[in-house]
Amino acid sequence: MKLVGFIKEYDNIEDALPFHQMVYGSRLHPGVVRDRLNRYMSAGQKVFSWMSFCSDLETGESICPNAYYTDGVWVWPAYFKYYLEISNSIYIAPEFLTYLENRDFMFEAPDEFGPVVANIQQQLLRYLTAQQ
Predict the structure, then answer these.
(1) Nearest 10 degrees: CA dihedral of 76, 77, 78, 81?
(2) What is the mean pLDDT of residues 66-71?
């Protein structure tokens, strides 16, 4: 399990970046890269969610439900997709971008996706609770 797109102000974990560094602290990504990444992330399988919403850290507007998604290898929070849509300079981990480029941004779920997601649920829950 690899994590991408986590923001400290939402998820205070070791792998998260501070909001301004994550959302505004990177080079500009061409719209086509952001669009392909957005489509890829939209195909992700929900790992788990709970009944509350994330609010935009600048406007306070409700932006998405609290949830985490996966492709079987990487895990990302729902808010990462929101900020990807509104920021031209969002930080995209180079390892994640290379992973997607090598797959030509094609989402390929594992054959037995259910057990993979169940395993990621357990790993992610252990990781998040250990970081608190």
Answers:
(1) -50
(2) 95
